[in-house]
Amino acid sequence: MRVLVVNAGSSSLKLSLIGPGEEPLGRREIAARGEGIDREALEHALAELSGAQAVGHRIVHGGLRFREAVRIDPAIERELAELTDLAPLHQRRSLAALDEVSSRIDLPAVACFDTAFHATLPAAAATYALPAQWRERWPLRRFGFHGLSHAWIARRAPQLIGADPEGLRILSAHLGSGASLCAIESGRSLDTTMGFTPLEGVVMATRSGSIDPGLLLWLADGRLPVEELAEGLEHGAGLLGLAGTADMRQVLDQAERGEERAKLALEVYTHRLRAEIAAMAASLRGIDVLAFTGGIGERAPAVRELAVAGLGFLGLALDSARNRAATGDAEISAEGATAKVVVIEAREDLEIARQTRAVLEAP
Predict the structure, then answer these.
(1) ∠ Cα 57 354 167 (to 5°)
(2) Catalytic pick among 73, 99, 106, 114
(3) 14, 114, 218, 306: which has the fewest Cβ within 10 Å?
């Protein structure tokens, strides 16, 4: 089955045609602003990526209802729209892409969720210590995100190192504009750094990561309106807030030149990253594989080196030459290290295609 994968991001709509053997048959990327999609560009892209037999859509939030991929029909689409308040920006973009593509090609369509991989989180990892009446009234739990990327790592890492997935403890580090870690054992998510929203966890490009809620309450108590607080946490914090740029390449370059803001940003970023790696390792009771993925994880050897530095107690060590030379999927562990370190290209498209086939080919 050839699957057209539709991935609506914050600034673009990515389309991929994936063949039955997971071979890429074509890719197109269309610029997007807000929820708007360039319809003429979309029609050209769909014409160039013809021959699909099904469509797989990345949907960010599945809420409590959707714990696995599902075939889309009008009732399902209404339920997806009802979840918009849990991820307003991301869900609207995904649903807009669903509408635009479905109006142009009449094929079976499947929703694949970023939250679904984390449906296996144990209660201890998913539960916030909030008043019981709050948790009973609203779905206040840790959902986790980047699940499609982490699910791909769960499949690809054992292949790369030639290991049996059963019992394998993988720490997946998706480091891009958004960033999250996931503790995976035997292919199942046991813990993750993002929570009720994609704001929790490590420092990101423009998102703050975890912040003392008391600090936020202090700011919200007459000092900042909620709208400005939300905008700052989502779009003005992280690397941008620390260094004045959200681009890790620029942060690294400026830090190398001795610019103090960039040096601090890099130190804060890697300090929090190391701390969260150690926390995920505690959830796994050790690590067999640390996998870096995402734009920064794949293309910033200096960040990988700084992240692993000081984590020798977990059995992690890098080979500097391997680390600097790594392209595509590669192992970068030092000889003698008891845990593997690998770099794996992010391929949500292959995971979405796999899940789409599984839903449509099920008996």
Answers:
(1) 125
(2) 114
(3) 218
